[in-house]
Design a protein that fits this description.
Elements lengths: L5 E2 L2 E2 L4 E3 L8 E4 L6 E3 L6 H16 L14 H15 L7 H16 L8 H8 L4 H20 L35 H13 L3 H13 L3 H5 L3 H4 E2 L2 E5 L1 H7 L6 E5 L4 H16 L28 H11 L10 H11 L4 H8 L4 H7 L15
Antiparallel strand pairs: 1-2, 3-4, 4-5, 6-7, 7-8
């Protein structure tokens, strides 16, 4: 019998030992997995020490044990910070882009999954990758390919022979999931009219104006809410640089649209109505304005009566009833009406700022598209 396993005729729990310096009612515990000693800080009786050791033994049995502290040279977070600083030093404009903010957040999430950079190997990365959704994978693919090029160029990933995020077919790589089918609730003219009427009943004149402008121009809610009198209504023309196109291509190559209001009297009537509303709303510098019920300031606003895109979408949701459609689907209605009016898909594509004409066709409501009259007879 091991007499060291007893204390005053009381058998000690597994892995519990008296204090190494012989102090009375002091104890220490040896973790059977990590082989590390844990000294109990408080005095306690042998019965209390046995009970505490029993709880710790159960934790170890359940898979918990103290792990080795990760040295700074192996912490993935440190290299992510270095990489972010390096990229921003090369292109300071990145800090102004929402897409860069999203990519930084994705890398921070990755660091929480893989704390130790030495643990990065193809199998564990693939297991993590396959659990992501298509949208999550698409967001990370290009950004992580650049990040891993940065790591591998410094020899920080010895277990990886190739970049897991490469697009080369002749190298081992991660595969994207199939893109899920897009679920759409189209907005046809009847639905548009019903929502517009409810907006008037709710006192949302700004929503009515935004809907009218979107249907006429195909502009998104973000572009419409950013319209300013001095910047975008110039020489009796509505002039817009499409924000999404500008973010993707830069200001010089972005889609630039202009409507001469003399040639577009219907659009001019919408703009005139917005101007009258702006005068009521303390001369708001934005085309879309609204008197808020609660006069609370928002740091994202330049003017108290300005309407942000999120507010327009909330108004729209409140008025859409059971249709389930979104403000964005007004673009589909606009594309359909343009097609019915005899415009080609290529012409509509240019206005909608789509990379592919197939994207434009996907916006159109198939049930409302015109048929080609056949005059050939046999």
């Amino acid at each position: 019998m091991d007499t060291g396993r007893f204390y005053q005729d009381t058998e000690l729990a597994d892995n519990l030992y008296p204090d190494s310096r012989g102090r009375e009612d002091r104890w220490r515990y040896k973790n059977p997995e990590s082989r590390k000693w844990v000294n109990f800080k408080e005095k306690m009786s042998v019965e209390q020490a046995n009970a505490l050791a029993g709880q710790m033994n159960k934790l170890v049995d359940d898979g918990f044990y103290v792990t080795r502290a990760i040295p700074p040279s192996e912490r993935l977070t440190n290299y992510i910070i270095q990489y972010i600083n390096y990229q921003e030093s090369l292109d300071p404009r990145l800090q102004e882009k929402d897409s860069w903010t999203n990519r930084k957040y994705a890398m921070a999430q990755f660091a929480r999954e893989f704390e130790n950079i030495r643990s990065l190997e193809m199998t564990v990365i693939r297991n993590w990758w396959d659990q992501l959704t298509f949208s999550q994978q698409k967001l990370r693919l290009s950004a992580f390919r650049k990040f891993f090029n940065y790591l591998m160029s410094q020899g920080l990933t010895p277990r990886l022979k190739f970049n897991p995020f490469t697009t080369a077919d002749d190298l081992p790589r991660l595969l994207l999931k199939a893109k899920p089918l897009k679920k759409r609730n189209p907005c046809n003219q009847n639905i548009f009219n019903e929502i517009r009427q409810r907006a008037g009943e709710q006192g949302f004149e700004c929503l009515q104006i935004a809907m009218d402008i979107s249907r006429y121009t195909t502009l998104r809610e973000g572009d419409i809410c950013r319209l300013k009198w001095e910047k975008n209504i110039v020489d009796n023309c509505l002039k817009v640089i499409v924000a999404k196109s500008e973010a993707q291509k830069g200001t010089a190559r972005a889609t630039r649209l202009s409507w001469d209001l003399k040639q577009h009297p219907l659009l001019k009537s919408y703009i005139d109505r917005a101007r009258e509303s702006s005068l009521i709303n303390r001369r708001c510098p934005f085309v879309i304005s609204h008197t808020p019920k609660r006069r609370a300031w928002n740091d994202e606003k330049e003017h108290l009566y300005q309407v942000l895109p999120e507010r327009i979408c909330r108004m729209f949701k409140k008025c859409r009833g059971n249709s389930g459609t979104t403000f964005h689907e007004i673009r589909g209605l606009s594309a359909t009406l343009m097609k019915i009016a005899g415009n080609t898909n290529s012409q509509i594509q240019e206005i909608m700022s789509h990379e592919s004409v197939r994207t434009t066709e996907g916006y159109q409501n198939a049930a409302d598209l015109p048929y080609i009259p056949v005059t050939i007879q046999l």
